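Reopening this one. Same input as before:
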Amino acid sequence: MSKLVHFDEVRKNNIRTFFLFLIFFSLVLLLGAFLGLYMGSLAFGMIFTFFIGFIYALIAYSSGRNMLLRLTGAKKVTKREYPHLFHSLEGLSLAAGIPTPEGYVIESKSMNAFATGKGPEEGVVVVTTGLLDKLNREELEGVVAHEIAHIKNYDIRTMLLAAILVGILASLSHMLIRIAIFNPRGGRDGRATLFFLIGGIVLAILTPFIGEAIKMTLSRKREYAADATAAVLTRNPGGLANALRKLSGDTNPLEVADAGNSHLFISRPKRKKKWLEKLFSTHPPTEERIRRLESM
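Same output, byte for byte:
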């Protein structure tokens, strides 16, 4: 049964990845169309933004894992330093049928964890020192199993792409606004130019909302699936349920979390959030996650 669930999740993630790219390049071309109309050449605007978006996406995807590890300050650790973490990684990855992921640690009193990479062959699991200090062995295994599930189901690839593509959309939309402000130029029809300018700015403003909605939709579904897979791997849903209960009560802020990476963590990081992030929460209610685990 667990194999069927795994293949179903991988299939769903492949479909999500396809639609993610479809939405991304559709929005890129739309931004390019507004830029091209404003500059006087529709083809130029669309080709220019598509080229910039494609090159940026290619570079970011190839180095996205390492960029994320650097941005969060995660440091690679050894089995000698954290034996309990590595025993969990080795045992649970064996049960999941994937290569053992590398272990990384973030120095923080906050309790949290995430996994990243393009696939199981280069997956990594990152945990905070606060998590290692405050969880018992069963609870730690539950959290590690949750992250192993993300790696096994290729959630890490989908969510890494989501973070990268949403960031690119935001950059392109900001570029459009800057061009409109600092390079005011009209076409033969001033009213048409004004219309396209206003439309382009509105689209640029809406792009971050669309990006957050995409991340929210992907993240909420994957968290429930990873919780269920973790329960199967550990055969102890109570371990993860208790860990989530402790994480939800943690009040220590996670300084390295931001709008671009907060959706990757097992629990919504404690930090001062902007109103947009509050509106588009990327994590399902912890109480519901605990309820589902305890009912297994």
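So the earlier flakiness isn't reproducible anymore. For the record, Residues 275-280 have pLDDT under 50 and may be disordered.
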